[in-house]
Fold this protein.
Amino acid sequence: MFDLIRRRLFTAIPTLAVVVILSFVLMRVAPGGPFDGERPLAPETRAALMAAYGLDKPLPEQVGRYVWRLAQGDFGPSLVYRDFTVTDLIARGLPISLTLGALALMLALLLGLGAGMVAAARPGRALDRMLMLGATLLTALPSFVVGPLLALVFGLWAGWLPVSGWGDGDAPHMILPVIALALPATGAIAKLARAGLAEVLAQDHIRMARARGLGWPRILIVHALRPALVPVVSYLGPAAAGLLTGAVVIETVFALPGLGRYFVQGALNRDYPLVLGVVTLYAALIILFNLLADLAYGWLDPRARR
Amino acid sequence: MRPALIVIALIVAAALLGPLALHWRYDVIDWSAVRAPPFAGGHVMGTDSIGRDLLARTLVGTRVTLGVAFAAALVSLVVGVAWGAVAGWRGGRMDEAMMRVVDALYALPFMFVVILLMVVFGRSILLVFLGIGAVEWLTMARVVRGQMIALRERPFVTAAEAAGTPPAAIVVRHMLPNIAGVAIAYLLLTIPQVVMIESFLSFLGLGVQEPMTSLGILLKDGADDMDVAPHALLLPAAVLVTLLLCLTRVGERLRDRFAQ
């Protein structure tokens, strides 16, 4: 197990370094900068600003400084939110985005596994077909469609839930964003769970369990679920990436002050350190999640532990 | 599969020909009908918040979205087939190194890389599809490589080699035609992926720019306006979801057919 972690980190750290350095160089060689506004600045002002943010140094030196500071948890100053450092902005946005993402993942796993199990228990029946049709529909509904539609139906028409803002992180403000974020992943998980279970249920040890007179719930949960979870777990890496990108949209739709919103604002305003910082953080999160998925994989299927 | 194909054909035809048949252009403002409901003042689906015909905008937006998706999918086809064919043919160290690159890229947060590209090089349609195509070729490369490795052991390849055919000719003339079916199936599966990415970027204001429109922009405008004009959200949402469902279905069917 530790060997697996070490090998994964061995590839993860260079990958992260490449992301950081490439993004940094890309942003610096791009035409146009954060100080090129409607009104041209006086050359002296511009030079002073460039010097203040270290943008006048040679490129390799800038990269070196950036990586060195990054290693100490300093993402640099934000060029647009002048009173904040990128670290401040991340510290404000990240908890909200993580709460949203974690709740959505839990909901998606709960609903997806539940639907997959119910569907696989009686394959080919009407309920199975209906659930799988629903799952297909959900995977074709991107979060930027589900979000506004949910807000329209439950927020504006029914008036049950608030349609924007985070409040103090209270439940009513969270319900719609979490559901909107969870639904596309729910569809995918339900399909994978159904396929995995169908395969496992056809095997000898399940027939054996049935022959011994065990009830369906017990067979499904105790004997079939663990091996059937393998495809679901291998989907968790991509799912994490999907939830992060989905959160960017959901935070925009529901006006939540999370990391995704800062990211979009940064991208629209060419706030280099902000965009760079968030991309680095997202890359690290996705790599971490892939690592966790691999570990879970090893736990579920001892053959994969080599 | 057939109903899905018919629906796709209908949507493509409407997107290509529809705007010609309409009285209103997608970017013309009708000052006498701002935020008109459906069927008011000659606007079948009403108008948006500054009085532009919604049906015309949806049709043109569908056209732009599909155009970007098709172009990006073609880019991914070319890059993916070339990469996968070389890796699968050469095998050994070369194959290992090339597939390592694919694995590493798979681990990256794609959407953010595309957004980074948009930020860096400005927001032009050309870049939208080049950028998307550049990150969507990975699956294609893996599939093509797998097929190449399977084909490489077949007698007709050995025969061609024995006859002294140059490797490039074997790959291009004898092996790639055998992969065409699978490649087309994955091309079709790439299109809905790209449609989603393009709509996502445009929704955030980072993709296609006004006054040009796309399904993502229409969804964003519709979402901003949904309290007074819900149909402005529902129409593009319905078109997008129908397209995604039908494209995925056709692609999956083709993939299953060629997979055996």
User: Anything to note?
Assistant: The mean pLDDT of chain A is 81. Chain A touches chain B through 47 residues (CB under 8 Å). The longest helix of chain A spans residues 216-253.
